[in-house]
Amino acid sequence: MLRRSLPLILAATLSLGACATRGTDGELASTPGDPLEPINRDILDANLAVDDAVLRPVALGYREVVPEFARTGIRNALDNISEPRILANNLLQGRFLDAGHTTMRFFFNSTVGLGGLFDVATDFGIARRTGDFGQTLYSWGLDDGPYLMLPLAGPSNTRDTVGMVADGFMNPISWLLPFEANVARTVVGGIDLREQNIEGLDQLRSGSLDFYARLRSVWQQRRNAELGRVGDTGDRIDVLEDPGAQ
After folding, report:
1. Could you tell me the pLDDT band of residue 203, with boundaries at 50, 70 and 90?
2. What is the pLDDT of residue 29?
3. Contact criterion met (CB below 8 Å) for 163 and 132
4. Which value, to the nearest 10 degrees, does the dihedral of the CA atoms of residues 213, 217, 223, 229 take?
5. Nearest-10 crossing angle of helices 83-92, 68-81
6. What is the residue range of the signal peptide feature (predicted)?
7. What does pTM read for this prediction?
């Protein structure tokens, strides 16, 4: 469960039954927009088991062994490698100003920033833009589709899952790297991402009466913000609100 799992919460209006009610046969009934909820909950349970046994301990070890400045450099380099993918999606969405910013970021960070180890572009006032193929498909009018809990990857939906697969083929840097290097980049990126979210996910998990419902709500509001679908609350984020506690 990575950075898309943080940090926006949608206040629910009902009790836990609104997030996951039970039918007359006692089986878990799905929530609107989440028809695969029983399966999704099983996948989340499996994800949490893997996280407890492997991912969180590895992330803690990574934090303990690798100094903060080195972790920041690794994170910057990984972000820099993804800039061509962001650029491609900026162009596909017709966001040409963002595409220009992304191009400048990649140029400055790859040269002055020593291959992206230093995020000099941000220091120059060129903020990082977003851009993924799920976002592109949304801009083309494709609906979200059902909510999905993916093994290891965490919350998503059918449109964004297709987009995630497509993004894997859109970055030309990935074509130039050997298979082993791409695997290593993915593994290191996942460990670094898990390290960044240790406290946040711990708080979310320990403070939720229904972690599945809360995580779904967090992810959906974050994704809405990324797509520009911010509701009446504007950009306000309240990660302390628990749908299960209503």
Report:
1. very high
2. 56
3. yes
4. 140
5. 40
6. 1-20
7. 0.80
Summarize the confidence of residues 121-135 as an average pLDDT.
96
Alpha-carbon gap, residue 37 to 239, rounded angstroms: 22
* 230: three-class secondary structure by DSSP: coil
DSSP 67: -
- Return the beta strands (E) in 93-231 as ranges: 147-150, 154-157
Q: Among candidates 147, 83, 94, 152, which has minimal Cα distance to 121?
A: 83
Give the distance, in angstroms, between the CA of residue 117 and the centroid of all CA atoms in the same chain.
22
Alpha carbon distance 179, 123 (integer Å):
33
How far is it, in rounded angstroms, from Cα 196 to Cα 122?
A: 19
**CA 78, CA 224: separation in Å to the nearest integer?**
25
* Domains of the chain by residue range: 38-198
Residues 6+ apart with CB under 8 A from 91: 99
Listed as own residue / partner, the contacts of 156-159 with beta carbons closer than 8 Å and 24 or more positions apart are 157/223, 159/134
DSSP code string of 199-213: HHHHHHHHT-SSHHH
Residues 6+ apart with CB under 8 A from 135: 89, 93, 163, 226, 227
| 3-class DSSP assignment, residue 120 | helix
Q: What angle do CA 201, 80, 202 make, to 5 degrees?
A: 5
- Give residue 28's pLDDT band: very low, low, confident or very high (50, 70, 90): low
pLDDT at residue 27 is higher than 80: no
3-state helix, strand, coil in the chain (%, to 5): 60, 5, 35
